[in-house]
Specification:
Blueprint lengths: L1 E6 L20 E6 L10 E7 L11 E6 L5 E3 L2 E2 L19 H22 L5 E4 L5 H8 L5 E5 L3 H9 L3 E3 L2 H4 L6 E7 L8 H11 E12 L4 H6 L13 E2 L2 H10 L2 E8 L4 H13 L6 H8 L1 H7 L1 H9 L5 E8 L2
Parallel strand pairs: 7-8, 7-10, 8-9, 10-11
Antiparallel strand pairs: 1-2, 2-6, 3-4, 4-5, 5-12, 11-14, 13-14
Amino acid sequence: MTSKPLDMPPVGQPSGLASGRQHTTSSPVELEHITCDLCGADDAEPVLDLRDLIHRTTDLPFTLVRCRRCGLRYLNPRPLPAQLGRFYPADYAPHRRAGLSAAARRWLLRRELRTLWPLLAPPRRVLELGCGSGDLLQLVRELGNPNVLGIEPSAAADQARQRWGLDVIRGTLEEARLPAGSFDAALAQHVLEHLPSPSATLAELARVLRPGGALVLWLPNAGSWTARAWGAAWMGYDAPRHLYTFERTTLRALLERHGFSVAEVRHEWVGIEWSWGLRLALRRRGHEGDALDRLLARLHLPLAVAATPVSLAAALAGRSGRVRVVARFHA
């Protein structure tokens, strides 16, 4: 593994939905060259040139590569793990909603949790990785299971404790050093793609889950119609926060490597990725923060609703941009 510094130029203020405050430091960003997290090979080919189009924390370009041996896609080179925090605005919250959108999201999550309830019902112990401000774990409690624990590396851990009274450990799963076999289910809502080593975290999950336990993942699907249609403007790439993107084959291989077997894959049908794709495609063409960008921000929800029939067709074809995966752990 090698690293080198690059200058991070100052950036301007975000607008619209990308409302997080940006880091304006001009200190160097150190990049590291890594090997494939799935197969260990150092044999990757460039796929796409990516930029931070959503939160615009940097103007640096990033390269998405694909391992020639196993097909895993990842950023290479990438920022050192210790520097990744600078690319998350202080109010970063990808699932934050307000008003009608918040109510709709909460309703959808409750429906999902009811579907998953056989895996989550008491007396089972439920762990959530990257729990943020705790909204998902609080819903698990409201549905009837108080046996929950959150893991969150950011200051959102304090918000989860203060707002909901949740038991949350601030740090990473590896740092928490939880007892072996102490949980029956683990939730990771759009977390796996952010991790410096998904393989290392899955190995730790395999240690803390009991045999027969369940892992529920929500994550982008690089084998989707939206990924193909939008290319470097697909919101699922979200460089440099998303260090990995998975297709069905690479995700299954990674899970099986650590003793998990895929039990279910559910494709989401909401049209948010088509709405964001249009906006990010225009940003790549120089429309960041201009009148058109602001107009698309105001029309985000209507555009997402209008795109729902296409998203539904993609879901029925097994090609939607976001999926929920249930995997079982076999010791």
